[in-house]
Amino acid sequence: MTDPAAPITVEVDLGERAYNIVIGEGLIASAAEHVAPLLAQPATFIITDEHLAGHWLAPLQASLDAAGVGHATKILPAGEQTKSIGYVDELTGWLLDSGIDRKTTLIALGGGVIGDLTGFCAAITLRGIPFIQIPTTLLAQVDSSVGGKTGVDTPHGKNLVGAFHQPKLVLADTGSLDTLPWRQVLAGYAEVVKYGMIGDAGFFEWCEANAGALLAGDAGARRYAIEASCRAKAAIVAEDERESGRRALLNLGHTFAHAFEAEAGYSDTLLHGEAVALGCLAAFELSRRLGLCPGQDVERVRAHLETVGLPVTLAGIADAGWTPEAIVGHMGKDKKVDAGRITFVLARAIGDAFTTRDVDPDVLDGLLSEILNH
Ligand code: GLY
User: Of the N and C termini of the chain, which has fewer Cβ atoms inside 10 Å?
Assistant: First the structure.
């Protein structure tokens, strides 16, 4: 019989850049077992943040020590502000001062900010060095640590400077979610249910039935949700690593979400996952208004997001300064804009998303006016 507590491995099948995502409880404390065989030299550089360091750094270091793997550690401030060019400068400076070479492996221990920043530094330092992701938030475990998108924010917007650089391993310790604030777990869940909305109506149904258990910390539900999400993402990334087609589906809700986040000043008023929930609902509502998606599917999405406690309206988030013109302006700065036309991910139904540049601006404007007036 399969041990329900045994780690699960999902492969990201990218030829010579293929790697495993290992999912399980307690993996940080036994990290060296998975990390050491991948190292070209028994030395690593760990990058983490002040918050995570208090919880997970000691068990990671102890595991590396026990395996005779050396480590140096850089602890950065927690928060989105750290995902900036300034910290790229600081981190690459530290690595180069430390005398690294092309076989040096970085370990990102943290959420999306640490993973994206570390991955980007790994991509550009000495024109590319190996790195390993140890994601400690639900959002990072199901999305940002997988697939090799790395980068930082600039005053122009989120993730506008970056590179594709695949990790050598993703180690998702489900136990690390125990120390995650509730709001962060819920925000990460938006990226879980997104996979159901994109291409798996059965998984959406599973989410409707099991989100309560998952969010309450049920180990089985948590493992299954992370595994299903990583399998969905791994399949898409294996098919379209550089987002020339199908990978764009993973951006369901993100065109709206990034615009809402920009208006909110990338602050704690609106977490990324919360913006994704609002953005997914907006994408389904836009699909309905364009005559593409049945209203009952939109209502099912709304009901589920509301039941779990994710935001379904901008009430209390947007102020009078948020206008449809400003939102469309942010959308126009997205990486996915092509010849001035914004790419939208829309849906024909739950589990049947597709991309299009063909959206009537008046319908979009009407929807945004309504959303902004709550
Ligand atoms: N988060 C979207 C992607 O990795 O493509």
Answer: N
Residue 343, Cβ density class (10 Å: 0-12 exposed, 13-18 middle, ≥19 buried)? middle
Is the CB of 258 within 6 Å of ligand 1? no
Instruction: Tell me, yes or no, if 156 is annotated catalytic.
Output: no
DSSP strand pairing (157-164 vs 169-173): unpaired
Hey, what domains does the chain have and what are their CATH numbers? 8-179 (3.40.50.1970), 182-372 (1.20.1090.10)
The per-residue pLDDT for range 66-106, each reduced to its tens digit, is 999 999 999 999 998 999 999 999 999 999 999 999 999 99
Give residue 24's pLDDT: 96
289 CB under 6 A from ligand 1?
A: no
Percent composition of the chain: helix, strand, coil (DSSP 3-state, to 5): 50, 20, 30
- Which residue's entry shows tokens 């940080």? 28
For residue 191, indicate whether it is catalytic. Answer: yes
Q: What does the alpha-carbon distance between residue 191 and residue 208 come to, in Å, rounded to a whole number? A: 14
Q: Write the DSSP string, 261-315.
A: HHHTTTSTTS-HHHHHHHHHHHHHHHHHHTT-S-HHHHHHHHHHHHHHT---S-T
pLDDT at 133 over 90: yes
Q: Is the separation of the CB atoms in 153 and 237 below 8 Å?
A: no
pTM score of the predicted model: 0.95
